[in-house]
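Reviewer 2 asked us to include a model.

Predict the structure of this chain.
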Amino acid sequence: MKNLSFHVDLDPRQISHELTEKDIQEVQEVLPDLLTAVLAVRYERRLAALETLVELFAGRAEITPADSAQARMEGRARSAIQEGTDWYTAQQVAEFAKLGPGNPIGSVSRWKAQGRVFALRQGNRDLYPRYALGIDFHPLPAMKDLLRVLDKRSGEWLATWFESTNGFLGGKRPRELLLSDPARVLEAAKDEVESREFAS
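Predicted model (structure tokens):
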């Protein structure tokens, strides 16, 4: 919106004597729109002033080499999570698990609510990792104990932990030992929690 400025050099008393009923009616009709325009201009000016103050106090934000390195590391971690296993929607899990009629997708969601499996949130849907499911596509029994130990962790944190090499497991990833040595993975999860509690 362009700022319009003008000046009228007239005596208000003279104007009031010369106004007709029609003039008054036209002014009254225009007043609401005029008020809206004035308020809009004032609002825009306040926003501009606020932006100027923020720039003044915050200065120019620059991306540092550390920021770039962190972004690259996070990007690699996300790629590893996505490529480390297959990820399935609740509908796909329900189909492969042969959950049958009724509310099969609701059953998969209940598994998550019961702490028997976890999911990554992507957009408006949950994605479930293949390694958390058995041959029959039902949750592995070990997952319930693991998720109880790793309580209140986000899906992204859990996916990162399962995909990361683990010193307690001799450099193996937890997901790699879920079937062959679930007890050892559980001990690694307990060690993870104890280490973090000690560090805090």
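Confidence is low (pLDDT under 50) at residues 1-8. The beta strands are 87-89, 120-122, 125-129. We have added this to the supplementary material.
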